[in-house]
Design brief:
Blueprint: H1 2-19, E1 24-27, E2 40-46, E3 56-60, E4 63-68, E5 72-78, E6 81-88, E7 92-99, E8 104-113, E9 118-124, H2 127-136, E10 138-142, H3 153-169, H4 175-178
Parallel strand pairs: 2-8, 5-10
Antiparallel strand pairs: 1-10, 2-5, 3-4, 3-6, 6-7, 8-9
Length: 183
């Protein structure tokens, strides 16, 4: 019985440690997602409730852009050009995308069991797939009173270098994001 109690206490501590601080505010009204003439739009959607309390910080070129938690999404504008999108959890998932003004890019943020915390990854979505998921998801915006922290430079550089190395050594591994053109 003592072993079971110890396991439950440790598991509870790990769960709450992985939850982290929330830098987002839930919004009841969901905006219409429309293209901008001068910017690209990025929509990151977490399509599952699995790991509902685990918050995943997301970055563009190392700059904080938002968080997801179970079955949620957020929208951000991106300067046209090639950028690294990073989701930070137990691992740092990375996607390199070439953004064009006037287009919308939908990324599905996956969550997987990790060793100590949850792991994450990205996949591309069509507008139809995204619309279906958004109907059931919570919409969040950044809390202006508690903006998240940017990635440290060392972690950002390593994450990008690892992605580029993987893409070069195994071109099929990241083919979906590297060839994604948005809508």
């Amino acid at each position: 019985m003592k072993v079971v109690r110890t396991i439950l206490v440790v598991a509870g501590c790990l769960l709450f440690a992985s939850c982290g601080e929330m830098y987002m505010l839930k919004q009841d009204a969901k905006p219409e997602i429309k293209p901008s003439q001068t910017m690209a739009k990025l929509v990151i959607i977490r399509t599952t409730s699995f790991g509902f309390a685990v918050k995943i910080d997301n970055f563009v070129d190392g700059k904080f852009i938002g968080q997801t938690q179970g079955k949620s999404y957020f929208i951000t504008e991106i300067e046209p050009g090639t950028h690294y999108i990073i989701g930070a959890s137990e691992n740092n998932a990375c996607a390199r995308l070439s953004f064009e003004a006037g287009k919308i890019y939908y990324l599905m943020q996956a969550i997987y069991p990790g060793v100590m915390f949850a792991r994450t990854g990205f996949g591309t979505m069509t507008p139809e797939e995204a619309d279906k998921e958004i109907k059931e998801a919570k919409y969040f915006i950044i809390d202006p009173a508690k903006k998240g922290k940017d990635m440290d430079a060392e972690s950002y550089k390593k994450t990008c270098a690892d992605f580029d190395k993987e893409a070069k050594e195994d071109p099929d591994r990241h083919k979906d994001v590297l060839n994604y053109k948005g809508y």
